[in-house]
Amino acid sequence: MPITVIVADDQAMVRDGIATLLDAAADIDVVGQAADGREAVDLAREHRPDVVVMDVRMPVLDGLAATREITEADGTGPRVLVLTTFDLDEYVYEALGAGASGFLLKDAPVEDLRTAVRVVARGDALLAPSVTRRLIGDIARRRRERIHARPQAFDQLTPREVDVLRQIARGLSNAEIATELFLSEQTVKTHVGRILMKLGLRDRTQAVVFCYENGLA
Question: What is the DSSP string of 155-174?
Fold first, then answer.
């Protein structure tokens, strides 16, 4: 089955261009386009796509507020890939806080965009290389004082789960973690699922931020 996608951008030419580029991939099917955040939320509820490619600056409802509505619906809704022109710390902070699974700049190569959609669709996380470590570190510093209650959640993790979580914070894939810790990839996948469940996190992006906020990375 192809990955179903909705593209949300208030600029018609940009929106059509992104949709065309994604639709050209054999494994991606654009099922809707939205000109503002409210329309994106409505289309997401109607079509239940795998991924919503979301612009940040849009009328009626901005992309960050729309992302929050989509991801907070029931925990099983579409994943959101934020696509923006602006490489700004605050946008990434807000996007991750709203529940986005990926953040990519609009000047990224076409194949990077398609890859980002695939990565986010399968439940992994993706951040533009230019923002990854710099902005996660900054997010952590600015939010640490607001998250003092969360470190207690570490008590729920086994020592092996903590080891896996540390590797997630380094940005390693399941296969790379398996090699690093001498585990099978399926075992790592099981640990990751349990970690996310115990910490109440949606995906690996939030796990990375959690680690930086709480001094594990």
Answer: GGS-HHHHHHHHHHHTT--H
